[in-house]
Amino acid sequence: MLALLIAIGFLTVAWQIVSYGEQSFNAPVDAAVVLGAAAWGNRPSPVYRERINEAIARYQNKQVKYLVFTGGTPGAGYPSEGEVGREYAIKHGVPPDAILAETTSRTTWQNLVNAKKLLDPLGIRTVLLVSDPLHLRRATAMANDLGLQALPGPTSSSRFESLTTRANFLWREIWLYLDYLVFKKPS
What we know:
Largest sheet: 5 strands, parallel
CATH superfamily: HUPs
Shape: globular
Mean pLDDT: 94
Helix content: 40-55%
Radius of gyration: 16 Å
Order of helices and strands: HEEEHEHEHEHEH
Strand order of the largest sheet: 5-4-1-6-7
Number of domains: 1
Low-confidence stretches: none
């Protein structure tokens, strides 16, 4: 009986994560916060590139006024994810004065804490979080706990498309989301 209850609990959380990531808000907000996802030298990884492209599209459609790129560096001598995102957006027509970037974070929690530090002086509270759909439930919960009014902005495409990669990502997010909900452990 206990095993059945645990299974039902996991399935419920999985459903919450999947269904939340399918929501997309198109109302205007102050900023899009693009959660980091690795840079390969001076290029965004395929996952990060899709997130950046989603944010650029939202900016071009006048849904957001600012783009906030997040993410640190894997080590000395490498550009940060935030810098790579900024440069990519500029090359794709976003003016530099519409871009903010933080360059030190290594986790989703740090992405959000550092983004909030950039947004607070501008009085920005309402943000669109741009990430892979399965990442958004946990990220939005964290952002809201930090005092932001966060809405999901899922990418329309993802590296996590096959059943195996999607299942692995979902499994990871179930554990991280539960860990955050129960223990408030940021990751």
